[in-house]
Amino acid sequence: MGVHVLRLDHRPARDKRVTSHLILAARAFGASGATYTGQRDPSLEGSIRGVASDWGGRFVLDYAESWRRVVADWKRRGTVVHLTMYGLPLREVVASLRGIASDILVVVGGAKVPRDIFDLADWNVAVTSQPHSEVSALAVFLHELRSGEELDVEFEGARLRVVPRAHGKEVIERLGGI
Amino acid sequence: MGVHVLRLDHRPARDKRVTSHLILAARAFGASGATYTGQRDPSLEGSIRGVASDWGGRFVLDYAESWRRVVADWKRRGTVVHLTMYGLPLREVVASLRGIASDILVVVGGAKVPRDIFDLADWNVAVTSQPHSEVSALAVFLHELRSGEELDVEFEGARLRVVPRAHGKEVIERLGGI
Prior knowledge:
- The structure is a homodimer.
- Chain A is 37% helix and 26% strand.
- Chain A is of the alpha/beta class.
- Chain A has one domain (3-173): 3-Layer(aba) Sandwich (Alpha/beta knot), CATH 3.40.1280.
- In chain A, helix 1 packs parallel to helix 2.
- The longest helix of chain A is centred in the first third of the chain and has 17 residues, at 12-28.
- The model of chain A has no long low-confidence stretch (mean pLDDT 94).
- At the A-B interface, helix 1, strand 4, strand 6 and helix 6 of A face helix 1, strand 4, strand 6 and helix 6 of B.
């Protein structure tokens, strides 16, 4: 089961850092890619591609004008999960979600979420019914969906790699070559 | 074991939404309060207090000028955990962390983290060794620390409460009274 994230309604002036954090969380917690709608933002795209290039793995970032088209295309070939505090509690549905055989599109709203996404989604899932953040909701959702195994994933082809330490920082840089 | 979050170096112009998301995630995932340093931001404080008032529970938000003083005070009475991608992998240390009897201060950096926090912290913990977001790192950390039980916490005294639904939105508003 592969996971792709759809971020709705990005507005560069207001959302730059939140959308960037959201997409980096998608990558770090094992999604294979993300699509964003709203205003196109070359600076966002550049910074995500920079991270993906430095830190390895395969992660695809796309832009789409119409979220409805992305969702409609996806419904023909996979399952659409919308993260919302109004949905069903994660703990009640996670076992069913882990059993989904198809790829999953995880839809994450911006400030205002169009009402029809609640009906278009196959699942509306709440990561707590409290207001917090699409970044934390997505990360905990992916973490639960993968049963924590995403934490052990290796990002192949990285130029930079952290050597975990109890104190201090250590980063190994792979120099060019074959 | 109670958990308090320390957010370093808030800058309102750049960080408003990220700090707000971070503190809301602290609350939603079971921390009892948060302190932030950097520039004081009355608008941030108002929005967090508004959420806490509407959605219930007890959550205390404080401001401090000196993060060093907060950490030094805390070290006399509890354990200091610093979340950083350079630290020890969460999965390797979470069992030890769950066994801590004292309260825990979880330190979460801003854009630039002072180097000495790595030495002052009792634990430097990495929620993946990949770059993502302090919001996702904090949420997954608290989720693991509480073994997911924070998802079942009731927030007492809430004015607003979500009724989980497979599709659509339902919120119950408690009207005034005794």
